[in-house]
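Incident review: delayed structure delivery

Summary: a single-chain prediction request sat in the queue longer than the usual turnaround. Root cause was a stuck worker, restarted by the on-call engineer. No data loss occurred. The affected request and its eventual output are reproduced below so the record is complete for anyone auditing the incident later.

Affected input:
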Amino acid sequence: MRRRIFCGFVFFSLAALVAGCAVKRIQPIEKGKREWGRGVLIATQKSEFKEAVTHRIIDSLEKDRCFIKVVDLGSLTDEAPEQYRAIVIMNSYHFWRLSGEAKSFIKNAGEDQQRKIILLTTVGEEFWSPGVSDVDSISSASEISKASSVAKSIIARIRVLVGCAGHRRSYIL
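Output delivered after worker restart:
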């Protein structure tokens, strides 16, 4: 009897742990108009930090008349990179590797397409490189206090790619 109770406890504890750690998918968002011609794709995962960074990017780029599409990282491989001038991939580094979706997308993108990819990888250590030399890579700890500075860095890189780098506005992020 004690063994059954113990096994039941272990089973429910593991089930709760798995449910709590499961990656939750985000709902796709589109902002702006495709006709504006400055398409930006953001593929991300659901986390407080990544959502804060994403919303800061959207708020700034909408003012620059960019079309922005936000998709779940799991849907990234469904997107055609040639439709966008900039692609931001926000990825968590688990088990010492990039997610399969991010890795596959980057690998399958041609050289021209890889030049417009900005890869944000969140990791436990601040100064770590994901080791992807074909794209512009940033790493950051997932600390909400860093969301504004990370977003500013990504926004500056996007503006260069979409052609509004000389466009200087002061935004409070």
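Verification: The first strand starts at residue 29 and ends at 31.
Action items: add queue-age alerting; document worker restart procedure.
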